[in-house]
Amino acid sequence: MVGRDARDQGFSLAEVMVAMGILAVSLLSMAGVFTMALSRASNTSADVIAKEQASQTIEAIFAARDSGRLAWSQLQNTGTGGIFVTGFTGLVDTGADRIPNTSDDGTTVMQVRKPGPNGNLGDADDEIITLSNYQRQVAITASASSADTLRQITVTIRYTVSGIQRTFTMTSYISSYGS
Fold first, then answer.
1. Are 46 and 168 within 8 A, CB to CB?
2. Boundaries of domain holding 96
3. 22 in any annotated domain
């Protein structure tokens, strides 16, 4: 029998099995990360909608104050003599005052238009998203450090994505000096 040369030696079965085990564990963990990334990417559109709705609500309140459509005394929740509905309400079209979450709001659920498969907005393949799974709350509180010249506006958007309820909160301050 001829002796084996050091170059002819290969891996033992045990070494191959250990290497395959390490490879399997690393591939499974990468698959988990990939799945989580896909899940986050599918939630991104809903997160952007929530952020934009909160931002638009705060901007509408500032615009109403600046244009004189909203007096400082009205800039409160209904429980404290203001016009803003207390608690969560659906995202519906604004009423005659053009201010969200007031008692004169309509009943038509808001919609958002997104570009369709061709990537162009404003043509026949656009996607219309009805915001029926979104709710908004506007909470207005007086600042403890001011003589009723500064109020805190907190807009919370509550929405459901893939069966999971999420919230987005945006806070701003408004002063009586702009009115």
1. no
2. 45-178
3. no
- Residues of the chain with pLDDT below 50 are none
Measure the CA–CA gap between 117 and 97, rounded to whole angstroms: 37
Take residue 45 and report the two structure tokens written for it: 């559109």
Report yes or no on 33 lying in a domain: no
In a domain, 6, yes or no: no
Model confidence, pTM: 0.74
**Per-residue pLDDT reduced to its tens digit, 145-174:** 777 889 999 999 999 988 889 999 999 999
Question: What is the Cα–Cα distance from 159 to 132, expressed in whole angstroms?
Answer: 9
Kindly state whether residue 62 falls inside one of the protein's structural domains.
Answer: yes
Instruction: Indicate the number of domains in the chain.
Output: 1
Burial class from Cβ neighbours inside 10 Å (0-12, 13-18, 19+) for residue 119 reads: exposed
3-class secondary structure per residue, 152-175: EEEEEEEEEECCEEEEEEEEEEEE
